[in-house]
Amino acid sequence: MNTATPLIELKGVTKTYRTGELAVEVLHGIDLALYPGEFVAIVGASGSGKSTLMNILGCLDRPTSGSYRFLGEDVSDLGRDELARLRREAFGFVFQSYNLIAAASATENVEVPAVYAGTPPAARHERVRALLATLGLADRLEHRPNQLSGGQQQRTSSPAASSSACRSRARS
Ligand SMILES: Nc1ncnc2c1ncn2[C@@H]1O[C@H](COP(=O)(O)OP(=O)(O)OP(=O)(O)O)[C@@H](O)[C@H]1O
Ligand SMILES: [Mg+2]
User: What is the pLDDT of residues 106-136, one digit of tens each?
Assistant: First the structure.
């Protein structure tokens, strides 16, 4: 049995969406403990609540009831700024709908987390260009999302999620 503090610990998490009169409970009491270094896949039928759960895990949404501890700290105690800091430092997001910024180029989209992390421009440009090149997008750096294919948009959204990789390598 693992006795270390879980990285992520959910207890009795429920989520109910309310639209007008209608209330639909999507998560019915999730207990989950994830430890550092674990590699986990959440699987389930379409509409079963995977994205709902991921939004809660990534601190983009709050549970209707139940608790969420991140490294032992109750996330419900955190304010907007503290949640934003936790998202920036602890999570990498690949959204189901890619959430790329329509008016920004592929390069600018991938740079966004590094901009917020304060990485100097020269370092982040170099790192982002190298990342996009490894994904076969070297000749699409200045394209906006609507000028990219679906797969190219997906490959742009993946490195945009790995802000910590951008940050640490840019600084090394
Ligand atoms: N904002 C919302 N308001 C009301 N109902 C919602 C909302 N978001 C999701 N739902 C409903 O909650 C359920 C779970 O949705 P969710 O997006 O978590 O499913 P999923 O498991 O990620 O599905 P998929 O595999 O299709 O991506 C669905 O039945 C959906 O209709
Ligand atoms: Mg989903």
Answer: 999 999 988 988 899 999 999 999 999 999 9
Give the nearest ligand 1 atom to 49 CA.
18
Which atom from ligand 1 is nearest to the alpha carbon of 52?
Answer: 18
* Domains of the chain listed by start with CATH number: 8-90 (3.40.50.300), 106-171 (no CATH)
Prediction pTM value: 0.80
Is the distance from CB of 146 to CB of 140 less than 8 angstroms? no
Rg (CA), the chain: 18
Q: Taking the mean position of all CA atoms in its chain, how far away is CA 33?
A: 18
- Burial of 113-150, coded b for 16+ CB within 10 Å and e otherwise, reads bbeebebeeebbbebbbebbeebebeebbebbbeebee
Q: How far is the CA of 158 from the centre of ligand 1 (A)?
A: 22
